[in-house]
Amino acid sequence: MSEQEQVQNEQQTAAELEAEQQTTEQGEPVQLSGEQAVIAKLEAELVAARQLAADQQDLALRVKAEAENSKRRSAQDVEKAHKFALEKFAGDLLPVLDNLERSLSFIDRENETVKPLAEGVELTFKGLLDTVAKYGVQQIDPQGQPFNPEYHQAMSIQPNAELDANTVIFVMQKGYELNGRLLRPAMVGVSKKPD
Length: 195
Prior knowledge:
56% of the residues lie in helices and 17% in strands. It has 4 helices and 6 strands, in the order ααααββββββ. The protein folds into 2 domains: 72 residues; 106 residues, Nucleotide Exchange Factor Grpe, Chain A, domain 2 (Roll). A 3-stranded antiparallel beta sheet has the order 1-4-5. Helix 1 packs antiparallel against helix 2.
């Protein structure tokens, strides 16, 4: 017997007992006619049916809410999958960006024979940066900014009287993020007050 049937039977029995225990003003028990007994039984069944309907409605609302939550979670998972599907690929491109940037710092721009090479490397580097930016990859260059351990990795701490403590003095390697998620922290040197 299900819980709902049990509740229904209990309510029906209670209604029948109540009907049987009705008394007159003199205290004598009232004998219910057949019709009154049927009415009492039907009233008990009506109460049970209303309770069952309320329980079913509550259950339906819970199922609907769970379905909506599941749909929302699935949509969020799909959105995250789209946003971060390129995470491994973008991470593999970071050394290429680093090498192009590093090569630019070693080229002598005053030398006329390598000037076209420097321009080519610079255009390649900017083109690659622009391309990865279209897909949500952004460079983190914290030069002169306050140190933020969420985005920066301190490689050295140097005393500096001119700057506030915990200011990024130099960037050894720039960091990158993909759609707001950190791919790689920037490796930086941080200032401290001299002793």
